[in-house]
User: What shape does this take?
Amino acid sequence: MTQTVDRETAAASTSPAARTEAWLGRFEEALRARDVERAAGMFATTSFWRDLVSFTWNLTTVENPDGVVDLLRHTLDASDPSRFAAEEEPTESDGVVTAWIVFETSVGRGRGLLRLTEEDGEDKAWTLLTTLVELKGHEEAKGSSRPMGVEHTATRERTTWLERREQEEAQLGISVQPYVLVVGGGQGGIALGARLRQLGVPALVIDKHARPGDQWRGRYKSLCLHDPVWYDHLPYLKFPDNWPVFAPKDKIGDWLESYTRVMEIPYWTSTEAKSASYSEQTGEWTVQVERDGKPLTLRPKQLVLATGMSGKANVPSLPGRDVFTGDQHHSSAHPGPDAYAGKRAVVIGSNNSSFDICGALWEVGADVTMVQRSSTHIVKSESLMEIGLGDLYSERAVAAGVTTEKADLIFASLPYRILHEFQIPVYDAIREKDQDFYDRLDKAGFDHDWGPDGSGLFMKYLRRGSGYYIDVGSAELVADGEIKLAHGQVDHLTESSVVLADGTELPADIVVYATGYGSMNGWAADLISQEVADKVGKVWGLGSDTPKDPGPWEGEQRNMWKPTQQEALWFHGGNLHQSRHYSQFLALQLKARSEGLDTPVYDLPEVHHLR
Amino acid sequence: MTQTVDRETAAASTSPAARTEAWLGRFEEALRARDVERAAGMFATTSFWRDLVSFTWNLTTVENPDGVVDLLRHTLDASDPSRFAAEEEPTESDGVVTAWIVFETSVGRGRGLLRLTEEDGEDKAWTLLTTLVELKGHEEAKGSSRPMGVEHTATRERTTWLERREQEEAQLGISVQPYVLVVGGGQGGIALGARLRQLGVPALVIDKHARPGDQWRGRYKSLCLHDPVWYDHLPYLKFPDNWPVFAPKDKIGDWLESYTRVMEIPYWTSTEAKSASYSEQTGEWTVQVERDGKPLTLRPKQLVLATGMSGKANVPSLPGRDVFTGDQHHSSAHPGPDAYAGKRAVVIGSNNSSFDICGALWEVGADVTMVQRSSTHIVKSESLMEIGLGDLYSERAVAAGVTTEKADLIFASLPYRILHEFQIPVYDAIREKDQDFYDRLDKAGFDHDWGPDGSGLFMKYLRRGSGYYIDVGSAELVADGEIKLAHGQVDHLTESSVVLADGTELPADIVVYATGYGSMNGWAADLISQEVADKVGKVWGLGSDTPKDPGPWEGEQRNMWKPTQQEALWFHGGNLHQSRHYSQFLALQLKARSEGLDTPVYDLPEVHHLR
Assistant: This one.
C-alpha cells in the first residue's frame, strides 16, 4: 500500500483519497508490526479514537496519542486488524479530510469514519471512529444473502415456516432456554430483539403489557413523538414514505406491534420479571417471571434490562401527601387529561413531561399551574428539526445521500468530549431564530437556560437525560399565561392545595409529580438486589461534571449497551435513534458470547456513583 | 427548445441527451400546434405508444403513425400536454436511445420511457410509454410533503389520531358511504386500498375472511410464493432486507395484515358481498353485504372486484361424481395433504396447482397420480429468477439502480404486441441451461411445451393465466416417477376410481380437480347479474389468438384496471407485481372521478367474448 503511494505524483498525493490511502497504509503497517508507539504517533496531539466493540469489546473513547498507546497495547494482539481501506471517495473541507473506511479484525468486519488534519506538515488522525459491523462466519442473512424462504425441492421431512414458528413458540422458555432474556419490550427491547433474531441468537423479550406498543398506547392521549421520522427508524425496516414527521403514540404502538411480528421476535406479553439472581458457578441467571399471572422460571445466560432509560420514577416524599384528598400521581402514571376538565391541576416540575401534561390538561379546559423548581432548557421542535438535525436526519439529508445508517455513524464519530463545541453554534442559531419566543417566555417569568455551557438539548439529554422541553406547543401556553406559573420548592400539601416554600398556596384537585426519574440501576435493585445495583453503579451520563452528571469524565454513556461490573448484566434503552443504533453493538457483543468467542473487554470503567 | 438544439454543435447533437431533447422539443411543438400528423410522423413505421391513463384515461396501446394519429385526434385537446423533458441522462445501445421522461397534462404529471431509433436519417420514436403519476392539486403526501402527524400548537379542539380513526371506523359504511367499495381484500384489494387511502379517496375494502392475509394462510401448508421478493413489493413499504426470496404463505399473510394496519386501510373482515346493482339514475351501486353475519346495505359510487384474477373455479361435470365415495374437491378448496397420508390420490390437471398439490401429497406419503390432459410449460424457479427476471427484479438490479418502480416501468414499456420477441431468447437460454432436467421430464413421458411461439411463462400468464408450472420441486418428482403420470381426458368416476377415456382405471381415495378457473366476469355474474357479466365480457387475455386467448388482438389485458362497458365497475387483481403496479393507475382513475374531473375515455374496447 505504501509503495503504491510513493509512486504517486506529488499532486495526486495531496488529494483526499491519496492522503487517506497513505495514512491508512502507514497505520496498518505500524499495527502489523505491533509498533504501538508508531501507530499512536499518527494521531494528532489532541485527538480521539472512539471504538464501538471492534477493537475493545466495549464502547470506549481514548484521547490523544497516549490514549491510543494504551488502547493498542491492550487490544492489538487479540484484534489483529487488517485490510484498512477507504469505502468511498474521501472529501476535504476546511483542511480536514473525512473518509469512510472499512477494516477487518481477527473475528469481524468493521466500518469507520476517519478525519485527518495536518500537524507539523504531516497528516494525523484527529478523530477515528471504528465500529463492528459483523462477525466473520456469522454474517446476517440479508440483501443478496437473504434466506431463500423455501427449499425448492420435495422432501418428506419438510416442516413449514408456520410449524417451525409454532414449535419454537411452544418450546422457548419452557423446554429450551433463551440465551438472552430482554426485560422490557418497548422500542429498545424490540430493536434489540430484531437484531438478535437476525443474528440467530436465541433470545426472548418479555413485557408486562398486553401487546407490543402498549408502552406508547398507554400514555396521555395527545402524545406524539418529539423527534422526527428520519431520526426514528428501527433496524431493517424503515418507516414508509408516507409516515408522518411526528407520529402519534397509537400509530407508533401499532408499528411496534407489526414490526415485532414481521421480524419474528420471540416476545411474551403480559409477563413480568419478579426477581433475578446470577450464579457465577453456572454462569446463568435464574429469573422468576409471571406470565399471564402464572409463575415460571427462566434461565438465560445473559440478562438485558430494557425497561426504560428514564429509570424508576422519583416521587418526592412531601409532608401532607397523605392528607391531600384529590388525585395525585407521578407523571409516568398520569392517565391523561379527560377526567380533569374544569378541575384545578398543579403540576410539579417544568421539563418535558410537565409541559406535555400541562398542555393536555389545558386543552380539556383544566385550570393548570406549573410549579417551576429549577430552570429548563426550551427549544422549539421545528427549530431543532431544521437547525439541529437537518444535516443528518431529514428529507434533505436523505436526498444528499446521508442515509440513516450514515447519519448514525457521523453522529457517533463526534467525540463526546468535544461534542458540545459542535452543539453551541446550533443553539446560538436557534436562539437568534426564535428570539421573539424566548423574549415572551422571559416576560412570562419562565426561567429557561441553554445548558451549563450553552450546548443545548442534546448534551443535556446525554449528560443527564432531563432538564429540557422540546416545545410542541405548550411553551406558548406558558408564554401566553394560559398555563399559570409558580416558582420554588414544594413545602407540603394540605387537603386541597399545594403549599410552596414561600407560603404560596395553590388550590388543587389533582397534583402531578413531574419530578423525573432515577438511574436505571434502580431497576436492577428491584429485580436483582441492591448489592448488584451498587456494584454496577449509576447508569447514563458522561461524567461531564455538570448538574446531575457528576464526574469524573467517562467519555461514554455510563453502563449503556456495554459490559458492566456485573457479569452478564446489560442495560439497553434510550430514544428510537439510540435503540436502533446501539442495539447493533449490544447484539454483536451478545452474539460473540453466545458463539463462545473470546471477548476481552478493554477499559471496563470503575464505579464512581451508586445512583 | 428547438432553438437550443439548433445551436448545438453537430457532435453534441448526436449524444443521446441531445437526440432526446431534440425529439421531445419537436414533439411538444407539434402537440402545442395541435398538428397531429406532424407529431405522428415522428413515430417509426413500426412503433408503439402505450399510455397508462395520462392521455387516454384508459390503459391502451396504439401502433404505428396511424394509431398515434387516432390517439392524438381524440385526446390532445383534453390532455393539453406540455413540459416534456428527460428525467435523467438518456443512454444509447445498439442504435436505440432510451430516455426516462417526464411531462405534464392539463390535470396531471406523468413519467414515461421513450426509445428512439433512426429511420430515414431521422430520430423516430420506436416505443413510447406514458403513465400518469399524480393529479395536480391532489399530490400524495409523502417524502418531503409527508404529513406532520401532530399539530405543534395547543388547541382545545384537538382530536387525536386514535379518536379520528375510531370515529371514521364507526361511521364508514354506516352513516358515511365509501366512494369506492373494493370487494376482496387479498394483495390486490390491499394494494389498491393503500393507494386510495393515500390519495384521500373514501374507500372500503371488504373480505369474507376473518383476518387480512387469510387468503394466503388458508391455502395448503407448504405453499410459498413462486415469485421472488424483488418482484413482490407492495406500494409505499418495501419488504425488509432480511425478507426471504420466496416467502412462505403464512409469513405473507402476516405481512398483509400488518401492512393493512400500518397503511390505515379501512377494511372489514368477515364480510361477504351478496348482491349488487347499479342505478344509472343515481350513479350509485346498491350492494348487499353480510358483515359478521348481519345484513347491511352499502351505496358506493364505484365498485371494484378484486376477488382473484383466477376467477371462479372450473369444476368439470363428470359422470360418476355422485357415486365416488372418497373426498373430491377443486384445487382451490384443497385442505392440504395432512389427512391423506398413505391414501391414493388422483389429481386431474398438470399446471401449477396440480404440481403444488401433488408435491405436498407426496411429501406426506400419499400415493399420487397426476392426470395430464394437455401439455404444460415447465420452468425452474431459479432459472426464471436468474434469467427471466434478474435484469429487472433482483439484488443485482437494485445494486445497478433499477428500483422496483423503474423495473415496473421498463417492463410496462415493452409493447405486448412484440413482448414475445423479447421473451423467446430468455426461454431459449433457460432450455439450454436446464437441458438435463427437460430430458428427464421427456423420458418420464411428461408432455411439456414452451408456449405456442416459444415465448414461455410470462406470455402464457398474460395471455391465458394458465398452462404452466414454476418448478419448485414437484416437477423433479414427476421426472423421477415418484409422482405417477396418466394421460388423457377423464371419462367418468366410479365408487373408488377415476376412469380415463382410454379405459385406464386409477384407484382413488381422493380426487382433486386442478382444472383451472373461469373468467373474472363470472364474479360479476354471481354478484350483479349475468346480463352485466355479458355486457362486460371476458376479463384477462391480450387477444393473441393463441390457445385460451382468442382474438381479435386487444393489446392490453382485457377489462383489467380500466373502464369496462359497465359504468363504475372495475376489475383489479393479478400477482403481487400487478397488484402493486396497476393499482396506481386504477387508483388515479378513481381519484379523478371522485374529484369530479373530466375523464374522457379513449378507445373503450368492444366485447368479443362472453367468458
